[in-house]
Amino acid sequence: MIRLERTSVMNFENALRGMRNPMNSWDKSDSYYDEKGTFVVGQTDLDLGHRLATAGSDHRKFLRQIFVSVDITAPLYWWKEFDTYKVGTVANSTSTMHKIHAKAFERDDFSHDRMDEGGLALLDTTIAYLEAERQKFLEDKTNRQPWHNMIQSLPSSYNQMRTVTLNYENLINIYYARRSHKLPEWHVFCDWIESLPYAKEWILVKE
User: Fold this and answer.
1) Within 13 Å, how many C-alpha atoms sit on residue 166's CB side?
2) pLDDT (tens digit, 9 = 90+) per residue, 91-134?
3) What percent of the chain has pLDDT over 90?
4) Neighbour tally for 190: CB within 10 Å
5) Which residues fall within 8 angstroms of residue 127, CB to CB, at 6 or more apart?
6) Which of 92, 113, 207, 84 is nearest to 160 (CA)?
7) d(CA 68, CA 166)
8) Partners of 163 in the beta sheet?
9) By C-alpha distance, which of 159, 162, 160, 191 is closest to 175?
10) How many CB atoms are located within 10 Å of the residue 100 CB?
11) By three-state DSSP, how is residue 173 classified?
12) Mean pLDDT throughout 72-90?
C-alpha cells in the first residue's frame, strides 16, 4: 500500500529563467501567467527544456530547481528502499519513537493488501500483542519495557507518513531505476511521477 497526497510542484518560473542564462536568451521565453495566476510553460520553453533534459544531467540543471512536495504514506519496507535516494531529497516523518503509543493498533496501520489468510492471521496476532504492550505502557510510563517491546516487534509493513521534497532530476533517476520493480508500491509511485506537470517532456526523457 502506498498513498501520495497533497502534491505541490514549485519554482517553474525561476528554473526556466535560469535555463536560459547560459545563452542570455531570456527574450525568447514564451511562458506566462494566465488570468488565474497559474504559471504556464510556453511551447518554446517546453521544447528547449526537452532538448536539455534529453541531453543528459550536465545539461538539464534547471530540472534540479523544479521542486515537488508530497505527503507519502507507505510501509517501512518501502521507505527502506526510498532512503537510497538521499541527494537532493528531504523528508520529515511522523515519529514512531514519540507517537507509537498514541492510538490503538489496527489492521489499517499496516500494509496488508496482498496478504493471504495465513498472513492476515499472523498480522492480527502481532497487532494484539502490540496493543497489549501499548496498554501496559499507558498504565505505567515509567516502565519502558512495553515500549521497547513495541518498537522492536513492529513489522516492516507498518505504515508511516512523511512529507517529502524532491526535484525533477531526482524523479528521473527514481523513475528509471524503479518502474519495473517487483514491489507494486513503486509502480504506483512511478504512475504518480507520470502525472506531474510536463513529466512527458522533462522526466520521461529516456523513452
Assistant:
1) 21
2) 999 878 778 899 999 999 999 999 999 999 999 999 999 999 99
3) 93
4) 20
5) 105, 106, 107, 109, 110
6) 92
7) 5
8) 71, 92
9) 191
10) 20
11) helix
12) 93
| DSSP single-letter state for residue 169 | H
- Name the nearest CA neighbour of 166 among 131, 188, 192: 192
Q: In the structure grid, which three cell numbers stand for residue 156, read together?
A: 516492516
- The tally of CA atoms less than 13 A away on the side-chain side of residue 104 is 3
Q: Which residues contact 26 (CB under 8 A, 6 or more apart)?
A: 17, 20
Whole-number pLDDT of residue 207: 66
The DSSP line for 174-204 is HHHHHTT-SSHHHHHHHHHHHTSTTHHHHTS
Long-range contacts of residues 171-179, Cβ cutoff 8 Å, at least 24 apart: 171/68, 171/196, 171/199, 171/203, 172/53, 172/63, 172/203, 172/205, 172/206, 173/85, 174/85, 175/203, 175/204, 176/206
Do 193 and 199 form a contact (C-beta atoms < 8 A)?
Answer: yes
User: Which residues are within 8 A (CB) of 190 and not within 5 positions of it... i.e. 6 or more apart?
Assistant: 174, 175, 178, 179
Fill in the DSSP letter of residue 10.
E
Set of cell numbers at residue 150: 513495541
Q: Cell triple for residue 92?
A: 520529515
Residues 6+ apart with CB under 8 A from 116: none
From CA 28, how far away is CA 167, in angstroms rounded? Answer: 25
